[in-house]
Amino acid sequence: MKTFDEGAARAFLAEPHVGVLAVAADGGPPAATPLWYVAEDDGTVWLVTSPTTRKARLLPGSGAATLVVHTVSPRTRFVSVDLELTDRSPATAQESRAIASRYLSGDALEGYLQFAQDHLGEEERFTFTPTRYRFADLTM
After folding, report:
1. pTM (2 decimals)?
2. Which residue range or ranges hold the Pyridoxamine 5'-phosphate oxidase N-terminal domain (predicted)?
3. Alpha carbon of 32 to those of 19, 68, 89: distances in Å?
4. Which fold has domain 6-133?
5. Sheet strand arrangement including 124-137
6. DSSP E strands: which ranges in the chain?
7. Along the 140 residues of the chain, how does pLDDT read in single tens digits?
């Protein structure tokens, strides 16, 4: 097993992986949801979601979340990063396009954006500052 440093963890997060965001919930299991995210060069992480989702309702009260991202091919690696919520604001169309374009392109991107506009309603942007990284490369 190889560990890698915070710089390598940030570089890994900057790649377009699907992450799982876990948010604490009083009296029950955490909200743990797969999602798209953006990790900026300075470490800031942000995502866009509907304000009606369970995670969106829980985040303001908890003020924190954990993002877990992993791959198994071509190497088995993971990063888990604890996040402090630093901002919540209405998402712009440009932000929705920016996050979706990390994962989709061409007709798939345009189709998704049209679907989102027609069916998902207004979205919010949640912005986080990392407070702790855990990471490993399990490839020998």
Report:
1. 0.90
2. 8-105
3. 10, 10, 21
4. Pnp Oxidase; Chain A (2.30.110)
5. 31-35, 19-23, 64-71, 77-90, 124-137, 45-49, 38-39
6. 19-23, 31-35, 38-39, 45-49, 64-71, 77-90, 124-137
7. 566 688 889 999 999 999 999 999 988 899 999 999 999 999 999 999 999 999 999 999 999 999 999 998 888 889 999 999 999 999 999 999 999 999 999 999 999 999 988 888 899 999 999 999 999 888 76
> What is the Cβ-side half-sphere exposure of residue 49, based on CA atoms within 13 angstroms?
21
Q: Token digits for 102?
A: 């990390």
Place of tokens 């189709």: 111
Q: Is 59 helix (H, G, I), strand (E, B) or coil?
A: helix
